[in-house]
Prior knowledge:
Blueprint: E1 6-9, H1 35-44, E2 48-54, H2 57-60, H3 65-81, E3 88-92, H4 108-117, E4 125-128, H5 131-139, E5 143-147, H6 152-158, E6 169-171, H7 174-184
Parallel strand pairs: 1-2, 1-4, 2-3, 4-5, 5-6
Helix pairs in contact: 1-3, 1-7
Amino acid sequence: MDSRPLIILDRDGVLNLDSDEYIKSVDEWIAIEGSARAVARLCQAGYQVAVATNQSGLARGYFSQADLDAMHQKMTALVTAEGGEFAHIAWCPHGPDDACDCRKPLPGLIHQIEQALGVSAVGSWMVGDSIRDLEAGVAAGCKPVLVRTGKGEASVAKLARYPQLATTEVHADLASWVDQLLAANP
């Protein structure tokens, strides 16, 4: 069992640019500036970092499992080049009507991460750009962090409607949150 503190990140809009048309290929997967370095900094500071991402484009036929694997290989390579690593990447391949337990806002992906890593996510951070990311995190006992990248700016405007998200920290992007976290926890 890994005793390092856990940080869970959404993918699209947190680590890479998001698109309403879905990220469908490795060429469309474009890292947000500073995100790979931010993950590496977390790892170097003693955190384990996992990803929890809805990928309904699989169920919708917008891309294949091989395409998703290639995107995750690119994402992993960028983080590795900066000196970091992902402890686990969990994704939901289902569509919104598939009645699965892993599609955020349900906490199933976070439970998959807990099981894969042999840790509890309670008290960990869940960093996302959408309300559903934060709801999944809170349902699993995580502290919510909203970034303004991706769909984050629109999500900031909706926060007040969700009393369970009242403690959400809001930051410009992943890198700025990591700056603040590491300054407070050197």
